[in-house]
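Hi support team,

I submitted a single chain yesterday and got back a structure, but I'm not sure I'm reading the token output correctly. Could someone confirm the output below corresponds to the sequence I sent? I've pasted both exactly as they appear in my results page.

Thanks,
R.
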Amino acid sequence: MTLAELLEKTGVTPTSIYGDLDALITGVQDDSREVCQGDLFFSRVGSKTDGHLYLTEACNRGAVAVVIDRETDKDQILGYGCKAAVVVNSTNSVLPVLAATFFGHPSRSLFVVGVTGTNGKTTTTNLVRSIFEEMGYRTGLFSTVCFIVNGDEKLEAYRTTPESVVAQRLMAKMVRSGTKALVMEAASQGLEEGRCDGLDFNVAVFANLTRDHLDFHETMEAYKKSKGKLFAKMVDPNRHRKVVNIDDPNAPYFIDQGNADVPLTKVWVSTPKGALEINSGMLGRYNIYNILAAVAVGIAVGLKLEDIVSGIEAVKGVAGRFELIDEGQPFAVIVDYAHTPDALCRLLDAVRELEPRRVITVFGCGGERDRGKRPLMTKIAADKSDVVILTSDNPRNEDPSTILDDMLAGVGYTMQESSPHGGNKIYPKLPNGCTLLVNEDRRVALQAAIAMGKEGDIIVVAGKGHETYQIEGDTKKLFDDRVECRELLRAEASRERDR
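Hi R., thanks for writing in. Yes, this is the structure output for that exact sequence:
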């Protein structure tokens, strides 16, 4: 496809064009490091960097044309072997449509379900995918845990909602391999940045809305509007369906987005198509809402009730979501991705419903992210736990002590008010009797929690879930809460046998 043909098919009108429009485009890319010979390079402007800074690198790697949104030294660009430069008003705006056009609009050949909400997206997408798979439809997945493109082939999910170029490329591969459907998490930042533009959704799902990502959105209203962008695409009553959790106070807003005039279904044990009896292996009251969302999708697209039930029951659990770590110990260890106030609250409420002897909670808050949620999460953990151990969770380039000070403010303490206790910092008991400890080293914090576990206790490790890394500075180090807990449990069992 030539550059001229691509522009004509998309209807994009450049403000300026330099060079040869007959340049043959064999690929599209918005990451200069991934550019190959024959690619069209988009100088996308991101939250942390600007693609215009890497034009020279892209041209040196073989880009035959570039898309930019500011006038620059065209002679310099064309001098590096690049044959054409296209200037537009916004590279970010034209990228989704140009990428979709280049790859042949693959989403139009797939049945696409988008799930948005603060909590439950990953579990819901896995449930919906399982329903489709049980019906015999090969189904792709874009989720926080992984991307599934062809059968059960899993790719690392570098972010919840992939960039436009990556999404279109993977969907095109799905279509070529015979995949019939795609279920994806539509994250608020991805929606705001246009990563879901150029995708043709058949079903949009809203799970819930609670505080998160205010470091990016700044206000809850802006956060809500970003998620609403998924529903604004639902405009054709004959093709689009909306599934909304009407128990959430924000439900009316999402119902009003778009023009799809489709009755909404509130699904409990009994549905308009008949009664359902679902025996799910997933624990926690909040998973009921995830299951209900998946059931509603199945009903919205006309699936048989038995297929819906079979698909949901086939999901035994989702990585890092209320995941039990069992090495034969007399107490339970649960690893969960909960990293927002609401998610942590729901998680600990679900744990309390299991009537444990004690709840021991280990968690941290990410660096360079929403500072306002840090004290809130500590207050929630202290109110709902018998022991709380605060630790690090992806501090990035922020001082871990500063993060912990923000967290401690939720219970009226500071880092300076502690006393040393076996390598941990311990604080006076809180008014409700909760014991509070701090250890910046996450591995040592986990060790402390497991060492104090007794029969009937439940140890909750929150925040990282399925993640397999810890980001310190600009370095991403291997660290998996599930692996660490298993190793610590085995070591503890070995010590017990030697006594």
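A quick pointer for reading it: The domain at 323-498 is CATH 3.90.190.20 (Protein-Tyrosine Phosphatase; Chain A). Let us know if anything else looks off.

Best,
Support desk
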